[in-house]
Specification:
Elements lengths: L3 E7 L3 H11 L5 E4 L10 E5 H6 L6 E5 L1 E5 L4 E5 L6 E5 H11 L4 E2 L4 E7 L2 E6 L4 E9 L19 E14 L4 E5 L9 E6 L5 E8 L7 H11 L4 E2 L2 E18 L8 E2 L2 E3 L15 H21 L4 H4 L1 H10 L1 H14 L4 H11 L4 H8 L5 H7 L2 H19 L1
Parallel strand pairs: 1-2, 1-11, 2-8, 5-13, 11-19
Antiparallel strand pairs: 3-7, 4-7, 5-6, 9-10, 10-11, 12-15, 12-17, 13-14, 14-15, 16-17, 18-19
Length: about 400
């Protein structure tokens, strides 16, 4: 007899694994389906130190960052985290393996969902081999492709941030606790490059750009990143001639607008499939961890009541809007109008404004907590003129 589940989680990335771990100790039957054959080349993610303990991630930490540096060709901003602050870099490959053990191997690899329909009031997911998986509801964690939710009529975002990153070995740095971000129009027109020290002689180096209207591929980013790495030393980081690339990852992820809905009858969207954008400085992983825990609690309650309607699941959307809804406005403005069109002069102005913030205020900016006081300090007449000019250009591009 075909086994039926309360929940099918589609996608074994950070979002899918996080919600699976949260469901493991709840009275909910579930399975995770993943299209790849195994855990493959996964990147490192940054999360706040406070969440490392909260989500039991200590064994996956490869480095704890104490310093955050922004550089333009002419200026710099350096933030030294306080004792209770800081960012930890976590090895997502190791985290995936640990969670796989915690959920006792409930991941079905090499399973691509090709169709979904209702059979007898329940969902039936059909894989590429025409095998059926029956469930009462689905949590779509399939990434920006939104493979399940799109089949169920949920419209996602079409604006993405393209990212290419390398893991380099045989490098060194004067300060192994310093994360460096470069804001330079010669690198990207709407993003930046970064260097993050990992463990030992390994470093995470990457470049990102946002192309809401034209979408050049991986080749352009790879060319610019390779040119960036020609230098032997960059701000205290020594890229030796004998360095080697141990991992390359190219990724699309939502950057501006979330999906219009996060829930529907029998469906919850989580992570990139929901278009849940990260904060302005890329700290999106903490939000995913929080939303995974919230989703698990809501699913458990739905199973108890045997009610998987949108109204029963709607508190998931309510929680997002209350705790992360500010992303939708401020990060939308900052990413589309600021990052997409800023030049080096404008970035220099932004660095000046960041230097006016206290350490506590900058940490709030990292978390997208834009208070009126912070917004006042970040504002200026020259920046306002630049923002307005960029806004007009964005509106014109859309109409064209």
């Amino acid at each position: 007899m075909q086994k039926k589940y309360d929940v099918v989680i589609v996608g074994a990335g950070l979002a899918g694994l996080s919600v699976a771990q949260e469901l493991q100790n709840r009275n909910v039957s579930f399975i995770v389906v993943e299209g790849s054959k195994k855990f493959g080349h996964r990147h490192h993610i940054g999360i706040f130190n406070s969440q490392v303990k909260k989500f039991n991630l200590e064994s996956c930490v490869v480095n704890r960052l104490r310093r955050f540096t922004f550089l333009t060709p002419a200026k710099s901003f350096v933030h030294l985290f306080g004792r209770k602050e800081g960012i930890s870099y976590v090895d997502l490959n190791k985290l995936s393996s640990i969670i796989d053990k915690r959920i006792k191997g409930k991941i079905r690899f090499n399973t691509w969902i090709k169709d979904i329909c209702y059979v007898g009031g329940e969902l039936c997911l059909v894989d590429e081999n025409k095998n059926n998986i029956f469930a009462k509801m689905v949590i779509d964690c399939s990434g920006k492709g939104s493979s399940i939710s799109s089949k169920m009529g949920v419209e996602g975002s079409d604006i993405y941030c393209k990212t290419l990153s390398y893991t380099l070995d045989n490098c060194s740095a004067k300060d192994k606790s310093n994360s460096i971000t470069f804001l330079d129009s010669s690198l990207t027109s709407s993003g930046g490059a970064w260097i993050v020290p990992l463990k030992g002689t390994k470093f995470h180096v990457g470049i990102s750009n946002m192309f809401p209207y034209n979408k050049p591929g991986r080749e352009e980013l790879e060319k610019k990143l390779n040119l960036f790495l020609i230098k032997k030393e960059i701000h205290g980081v020594d890229f030796r001639r004998s360095r080697r690339i141990t991992k390359k990852i190219f990724k699309d992820s939502p950057a501006i607008r979330p999906a219009k809905r996060f829930v529907k009858d029998n469906l919850i969207l989580l992570g990139d499939s929901a278009g849940q954008p990260s904060s302005f400085f890329g700290m999106g992983s903490p939000a995913i961890l929080d939303m995974a825990r919230v989703a698990a609690g809501i699913v458990e309650e739905a199973v108890k009541k045997d009610d998987f309607s949108r109204s029963q699941l709607s508190s998931y959307e309510t929680y997002w809007k209350k705790n992360f809804g500010r992303y939708e406005f401020f990060n939308g403005v900052l990413r589309e109008i600021v990052m997409r069109l800023f030049d080096d002069e404008a970035w220099d102005l932004m660095i000046d404004k960041l230097n006016s913030l206290s350490g506590k205020e900058f940490f709030e900016v990292l978390k997208s907590n834009y208070t009126l006081g912070i917004l006042f300090k970040l504002s200026s007449f020259r920046l306002a003129i630049k923002l307005f000019s960029n806004f007009i250009e964005v509106v014109y591009d859309r109409r064209v």
